[in-house]
Amino acid sequence: MNFGARKRRTAAATKAAGLDGILITHLPDVRYLCGFTGSNAALAMAGGTAVLFTDGRYTAQAKAEAVGTRVVIANKPVVAAACEWLVEKSVKRCGFDALHTTVAALESMHKAVPTKVRRGMFVASEPVVARLREVKDVDEISKIRKTASLGGQLFDGMLEYLRPGLKEMEVAAELEYRARLAGAEAMSFETIVASGERSALPHGRASLAKLPKRGFVTMDFGVVLDGYMSDMTRTVHLGRAVNGEQDVYHAVLEAQVAAVAAVAPGVTAGEVDEAARSVLRRAGLDTFFTHSTGHGVGLEIHEGPRLAAKQTQPLKAGMVITIEPGVYIPGRFGLRIEDMVLVTPAGGEVLTPSVKAWIEL
Fold first, then answer.
1. Quick one: which of 202, 204, 211, 209 has its CA closest to 190?
2. Is residue 117 over pLDDT 80?
3. For residue 114, is the peptide bond before it cis, meaning its omega torsion is within 30 degrees of 0?
4. Is there a contact between 82 and 58 (Cβ–Cβ < 8 Å)?
5. C-beta atoms surrounding 114 within 10 Å
6. What structural domains and CATH numbers belong to the chain?
7. d(Cα 167, Cα 259) in Å, to the nearest integer?
8. For residue range 87-114, what is the model confidence (pLDDT) as tens digits?
9. Does the structure show a pLDDT above 90 at 319?
């Protein structure tokens, strides 16, 4: 990981925003800039210099992980120590991420600096580091490929396990157990397993409900490898399909494939969303597609860009996004198909290896 280049880009973006310093407290941003993975940290940057502040629990870890970054083991709250350093560096306008900074945290930042410099010092800015994180570098893409590959392998292995009568929680537990055995550090989020009528819940977390003899089973899950996350959804059908279930599935699949085909540098997030939504509109199913088409993935499961209606942000080569249209008909069934897609100079490359065709078990 080229942490030096990342810090230089952050310093340039900070300067371009009219700031002479920045305080970074969101832990994924800290990790992105210096490699530190501890649970208590602040990274302060000014004048081309970056300093990581953490506490005594992480003395050895910080020095091992934050290579190329000065480490300070603070004997006070890390944010207070970082603010004092920024004052020492004569920072007058310090940016902070308003999206992840609470009112209480901002108050503590104000209290940490002298009254005479407090006014106007802290400036709420757009999430500078989060914007940089949207475009992945070569090392990040390599890591994400591995997480996506593992997710696909896990799904493929679960096909032989699924059967009517299993509790949704049993399915989730088995999937997570296999993920751990395969080397996953954690799951990206709480595993979703929704079956039968519950499949109409877009975020139907695994419950005590039993898989039906006949009906859909949706599994939405992700794994973490070396800090980077995957995200995929597949829906299978137990028993023989009836009442247009297979037609709805193919409409969602067509929408998903259309959105993937729309991915290219310069195309807006809203245009990709519309590529999926228009297919479902023609099929008379768009009112049952109740969420956005996708989002970025990396050190966090939800990053920018957001692929939704009227989103004007253009895609860039190096972004890793999800494409996940779905249809959810209350009281009947629902389904979703989701891939991770890398934006390349030539278009969209699907990273999720598992088959998307109709599966009837």
1. 204
2. no
3. no
4. no
5. 9
6. 3-132 (3.40.350.10), 138-350 (3.90.230.10)
7. 33
8. 999 999 999 999 999 999 999 999 988 8
9. yes
Spell 316-340 as b/e; 16+ CB within 10 A means b: eebbbbbbbbbbbbeebbbbbbbbb
Closest CA to 335 of 214, 158, 167, 216: 216
Torsion of CA 131, 185, 178, 142, to 10 degrees: 50
Please state the separation of Cα 208 from the chain's center in Å: 27
Tens-place pLDDT, residues 126-182: 889 999 999 999 999 999 999 999 999 999 999 999 999 999 999 999 999 999 999
Work out the widest C-alpha separation in the chain, in whole angstroms.
Answer: 74
Q: Which residues of 259-284 are buried (b: 16+ CB within 10 A; e: fewer)?
A: bbebbbbebbbbbbbbbbbebbeebe
CA distance 155 to 179: 10
- 26-48, pLDDT tens digit by residue? 999 999 999 999 999 999 999 88
- Classified as helix, coil or strand, 329 is strand
pLDDT higher than threshold 80 for residue 338: yes
Which pLDDT belongs to residue 118? 74
Instruction: Report how far residue 113's alpha carbon sits from residue 80's, in angstroms, rounded to the nearest whole number.
Output: 8
- Can you give the length of the chain in residues? 361
Which helix H or strand E contains 33, and what residues bound it? helix 27-34
Cβ atoms within 10 Å of 48's Cβ, excluding its own: 9
| Interatomic CA distance for residues 20 and 8, integer angstroms | 13
Token pair listed for 206? 């695994």
Task: Quote the DSSP letter at residue 56.
Answer: G
The tens digit of pLDDT for each residue in 272-293 reads 999 999 999 999 999 999 999 9
